[in-house]
Amino acid sequence: MTIDRLSARAAVLLGFATLLLAACGSAKEEAADAPAPSVPEAAASPDAASPAPETAAPAVPEAAAGASGLAAYVDKYPFDKVGGVAWNDHPAVKAGIAATVKDAKARGAIETLEGPAAPIEMRGGKVMSWACEAHNCGPHQWSVHIDPKTGATDVCYFDEEASPAQSRWFLAGGKEERRPGNCQ
């Protein structure tokens, strides 16, 4: 290619880029001149910058919601608040853990919110949360499984130092058993 052809192509590309930038600038000016949307319009927009209110529950069948309201936490993290209450502060969760986990050390670890956690999910008809100790997730983790209809609580606690191949399960009704693996 000759220098004249390269110069011509560069001029065309430069002109095209200028047109694109001008079009973007005019769209911004039009947006700036447009009146601000009212609050209801902004909330209805799927691209709204503000997050959904904390009290908004994910789509969960009414039958699964149960009297405790724990199903509203599904797809949220344990530290997220529903109706102003985090998972570990919910009365049904506190009561379930207290009634089920008699080992004070295990209960103290389970009740903390200081480590990483996964989103809460429905598993086997129960609302389940999973969390672990910061910087020690594999070796030290736990999960809480609560029947949203009855409040029956089962808790898995895994401490690799205490038992590298088994987790402790604290079951509703005060029973405890060991199962292979961790709490994931």
Beta percentage is 15-25%
Principal-axis shape: globular
How many beta-strand elements?
8
Give me the side-by-side strand order of the main sheet: 3-4-5-6-7-8
| CATH level-two architecture of the largest domain | 3-Layer(aba) Sandwich
Overview of this structure, please?
The chain has 184 residues and is an alpha+beta fold. It folds into 2 domains: 3-34; 62-180, Inhibitor of vertebrate lysozyme, Ivy. It is 32% helix and 21% strand. It is built from 5 helices and 8 strands. The strands form 2 sheets. A 6-stranded antiparallel sheet has the order 3-4-5-6-7-8, with helices on one face. Strands 1-2 form a two-stranded antiparallel sheet. β5 (140-146) and β6 form a beta hairpin. The protein starts with a helix and ends with a strand.
